Amino acid sequence: MQGKETQQGYVLAFSLILLAFASIILISALERTGIEKRIATSELHRATLEAAAEAGIHDFMIAVREFSVRNKYTDGDAYCTELKKGIGDFDTDELTVFFNEYLPSGMQETRMGLGSKDEPVVFMEEPRIFWYLSKPNCEEEGVFSMLIHAEQNERHIVSSLNIKVSIDFAREYSASFPPELEEALGRFADYTLAAGGAGFTANGQREYHGKVGSGGPLILNGSSLVNGSTNHEEQIEQISDWVTMPHPGSSTSHTHFTGFTDSIRVYAAQGKRGVIEQCHSSDIPPGTRYIYCPGNFGGDIHDGLNNLVIVATGNVNVPKIVNEGVSLSIVTNGNVTLDVEPARSLSGGVIWAAGTVTLNGGPQFETGIVALGSITINGGGFNNPRPDPRFVPVLHIDFEY
């Protein structure tokens, strides 16, 4: 009897051990299930976290681009240093000042939060996902770097990612000066005004800034200043080799084509590179980049044609620039006559003519001119279209999970 009772005691103890072991397994399984569920939920929102971080990049880059446009520093290091000074360590007060200065007012009104660690921007409420900026740093050669941190932290679910952003303040000349024209013009692209053997004539009391050259006589009527000086002989370079100035229709005017105007004609015929054939501005669709005219071109220019490049085999006559600050480039085997109303200005581009160029009116021109014939300016003064290279923020992104 005693042996039987002992055996029953062992069975009871063994059963309790099995129950405890089973309980441990069950609890562990439940905990693991909960963890896996949280991990799965976290992974489910990974794309949303990336979207939140990219929204932060978008907002910040809008401000940085505006910062780069308004400030005129001489190198990328200066831009990086001043940007870091402006944002400090991304605390709330410094970001408030920075974003109020460089973000459009409409964005200020719609932002939920600011973007600092103490005041993050809420990207989504359910689940709650937010982002903020951190760790600003100036690396070598003027590269600004920082982290954009996006996080979901709610209901025991924690998920986050960091995106490292590097902003390289790259040297770039005005986007309104077509790079293919700079290549075709060669060293003459550096001139604000370059006149051929017939010379340069200016009428009116205006100022001319930049590199000015002439292969012929200089006629400056009135008290015009060249680079702030009345000593025009010193300020205007005599182009002794003006006969080598590139002709837009010659076989040497472009390194890849048989003449610049001819290459554009081929593109128009083939329907390539968005070049269309047209000889009057009223028939050009807004947003057109290049037009080719096999003859004389005419018509007013409005802001819907901003950054347009007119390529013609004949003369180009623009009676009116309708809007302020339009950028326009003209390449022609003939002459150019351009009228700008006194209250308007031409803010970019280049005029390249095999014949003469005559500009009338306008308070200010910021256009490069290269003419194998004479250049005559009646009215407006001139600034170098690219007085200094501007520094454009170029974005590089690395995800750090």
TrEMBL record:
<keyword id="KW-0812">Transmembrane</keyword>
<protein>
    <recommendedName>
        <fullName>PilX N-terminal</fullName>
    </recommendedName>
</protein>
<feature type="transmembrane region" description="Helical">
    <location>
        <begin position="12"/>
        <end position="30"/>
    </location>
</feature>
<keyword id="KW-0472">Membrane</keyword>
<keyword id="KW-1133">Transmembrane helix</keyword>
